[in-house]
């Protein structure tokens, strides 16, 4: 009798993996273990649409009905405490023990904590729906919001807070916002949009201290400036959740280390999504860890296939998006692989930067514009990147040359 | 009474491409396939109400510009996560160089 498949982590990745196991015809037990009380849900809206909604709701990946129909057992509000690799069992915080044939760790990531004393009830992080509700309650006309970290989460929350009438200050220790992974030319557009909407952005000044008395947070910068906020939201990145894997003796390397098929060193244990580092084939096997919705989804699907023995290697190109005000940014590939940039204007202020490696290979594309103006060309760029194409820079830069025609070349 | 509505001229859409068409407070997507046939579907993705006309057409697939949900635009079939609800399709014909859609 099959012990079945156990998935630890009921987010986008774990949820997709469970559904995929059934889509592929797997008939044994499938158990999805999550530490939140909710159905598996999509996290991206938490800093975007859900945050400006009067009554934020969960956008579930699968309803109770679908889980029941597919015989996926969802155990919620519990932690996986330990893996007994020898016995093929996972012990949960409610005392129960789950046997497995194959185990998938989709434990995700958790907000990086600000390593500083003085943080209290008015200093918060965003990861879960519960976090989102707590933040939402403070976003209204007249409230003062400090955002620590000029990354995507922070900036999306800044946009949401402004939309709801709050006064917003963004504090970024680096010389500009979005230092990691976003070209300066695009970060500048986003910076200007925030300033035009009334956000105060302070760059290049680190935090010296925070005093939080439970009713307000007082943030003092190294340069002496003081920001008083009803709520300080800290968005300084995320760290992979690896404790369970580490204690089970699995290798950790900026995340749970897996091979191209998302297998850990234990052939019966896989890891996928935010929690794992894996070799990215499109860049010669460079080991990366991606914190992105689409990666979580794709790797959940791939892990499910390989748990069933498909032996398929990861081949996707990283893809990421962010929405702020009416602007949408999309990036495919990793721009730090590039050595030169070619710009293509698309009209309406939208443009794409193509990042080329030394040998002329297209390695990434970063685009920004109103609505979904850059979406189609970013998608085509992704295909060119996957093909390891070396398109002529003139053609990339020319509005009159269709990107689709370069794909056929 | 005819329900056929002129959406655009046949040459307005490139082969293997898509165009947005708004009519009567509704929005549609009109497609021209690589083998020069025309099709029409509801204009918004069933996942997050995004205009599909901003997406990419490859063969008989339209891909949502936001989250890469895929549909067969000839049949409306959803082709994989995150989309699971099919798109509604509409009959299309070309008459005297005009692309006509039957909206009902």
From TrEMBL, chain A:
Q: Where is the FAD/NAD(P)-binding domain?
A: 5-300
Keywords attached to this Swiss-Prot or TrEMBL record, sorted alphabetically, are: FAD, Flavoprotein, Oxidoreductase
| InterPro entries for this protein | FAD-oxidoreductase/Apoptosis (IPR050446), FAD/NAD-bd_sf (IPR036188), FAD/NAD-binding_dom (IPR023753), FAD/NAD-linked_Rdtase_dimer_sf (IPR016156), Reductase_C (IPR028202)
Please give the SUPFAM superfamilies that the UniProt record associates with this protein: FAD/NAD(P)-binding domain, FAD/NAD-linked reductases, dimerisation (C-terminal) domain
Names of the cofactor(s): FAD
Superkingdom as given in the UniProt entry? Bacteria
Q: Which residues form the Reductase C-terminal domain?
A: 319-407
State the coiled-coil residue ranges.
none
Q: Which PANTHER family does this one have?
A: APOPTOSIS-INDUCING FACTOR 1, RIESKE DOMAIN-CONTAINING PROTEIN-RELATED
This protein's name: FAD-dependent oxidoreductase
Q: Which organism is it from?
A: Mesorhizobium qingshengii
Automatic annotation (TrEMBL), chain B:
Q: Where are the transmembrane segments?
A: none
Keywords noted in UniProt:
2Fe-2S, Iron, Iron-sulfur, Metal-binding
> Which cofactors must be present for this protein to function?
[2Fe-2S] cluster
Which CDD domains is this protein grouped with? Rieske_RO_ferredoxin
Q: Show the InterPro entries listed in the entry.
A: MocE_2FeS, Rieske_2Fe-2S, Rieske_2Fe-2S_sf
Protein's name in the database: MocE family 2Fe-2S type ferredoxin
What the entry lists under NCBIfam families is as follows:
MocE_fam_FeS (TIGR02377)
Q: Which residues does the UniProt record annotate as the domain Rieske?
A: 5-101
Per UniProt, what is one Pfam family of this protein?
Answer: Rieske
Task: Indicate yes or no for the key word Transferase.
Answer: no
Which species is this record about? Mesorhizobium qingshengii
The UniProt similarity line reads: Belongs to the bacterial ring-hydroxylating dioxygenase ferredoxin component family.
């Amino acid at each position: 009798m099959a012990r079945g498949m156990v998935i630890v982590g009921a987010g986008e990745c774990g949820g997709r993996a469970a559904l995929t196991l059934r889509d592929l015809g797997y008939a044994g037990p499938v158990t999805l273990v999550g530490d939140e009380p909710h159905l598996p849900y999509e996290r991206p809206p938490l800093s975007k649409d859900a945050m400006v909604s009067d009554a934020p709701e969960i956008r579930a990946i699968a309803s109770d009905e679908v889980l029941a129909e597919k015989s996926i057992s969802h155990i919620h509000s519990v932690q996986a405490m330990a893996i007994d690799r020898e016995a093929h069992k996972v012990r949960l915080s409610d005392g129960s023990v789950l046997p497995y044939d194959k185990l998938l760790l989709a434990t995700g990531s958790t907000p990086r904590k600000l390593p500083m004393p003085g943080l209290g009830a008015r200093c918060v992080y965003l990861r879960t729906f519960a976090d989102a509700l707590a933040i939402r309650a403070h976003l209204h006309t007249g409230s003062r919001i400090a955002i620590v970290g000029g990354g995507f989460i922070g900036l999306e929350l800044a946009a949401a807070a402004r939309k709801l009438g709050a006064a917003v200050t963004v504090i970024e220790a680096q010389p500009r916002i979005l230092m990691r992974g976003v070209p300066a030319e695009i970060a500048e557009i986003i910076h200007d949009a925030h300033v035009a909407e009334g956000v105060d952005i302070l760059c290049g000044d680190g935090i010296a201290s925070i005093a939080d008395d439970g009713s307000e947070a007082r943030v003092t910068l190294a340069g002496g400036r003081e920001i008083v906020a009803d709520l300080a939201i800290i968005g300084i990145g995320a760290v992979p959740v690896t404790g369970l894997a580490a204690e089970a003796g699995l290798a950790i390397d900026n995340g749970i280390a897996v091979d191209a098929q998302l297998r850990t060193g234990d052939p019966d244990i896989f890891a996928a999504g935010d929690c794992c580092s894996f070799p990215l084939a499109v860049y010669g096997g460079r080991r990366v860890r991606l914190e992105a919705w689409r990666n979580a989804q794709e790797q959940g699907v791939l892990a499910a296939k390989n748990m069933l023995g498909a032996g398929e290697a990861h081949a996707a190109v990283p893809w990421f998006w962010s929405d702020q005000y009416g602007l949408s940014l999309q990036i495919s590939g990793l721009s730090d692989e590039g050595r030169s940039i070619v710009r293509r204007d698309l009209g309406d202020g939208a443009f794409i930067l193509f990042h080329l490696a030394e040998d002329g290979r297209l390695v990434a594309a970063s685009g920004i514009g109103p609505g979904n103006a850059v979406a189609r060309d970013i998608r085509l760029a992704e295909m060119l990147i996957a093909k390891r194409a070396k398109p002529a820079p003139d053609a990339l830069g020319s509005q009159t040359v269709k990107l689709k025609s370069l794909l056929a070349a | 009474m005819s329900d056929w509505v002129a959406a655009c001229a046949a040459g307005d859409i490139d082969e293997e491409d898509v165009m947005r068409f708004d009519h009567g407070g509704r929005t549609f997507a009109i497609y021209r396939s690589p083998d020069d046939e025309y099709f029409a579907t509801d204009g918004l993705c069933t996942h997050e109400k995004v205009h599909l006309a901003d997406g990419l057409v490859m063969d008989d697939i339209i891909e949502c510009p936001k989250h890469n949900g895929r549909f067969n635009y000839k049949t409306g079939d959803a082709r994989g996560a995150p989309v699971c609800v099919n798109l509604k399709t509409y009959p299309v014909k070309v008459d005297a160089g005009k692309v006509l859609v039957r909206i009902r």
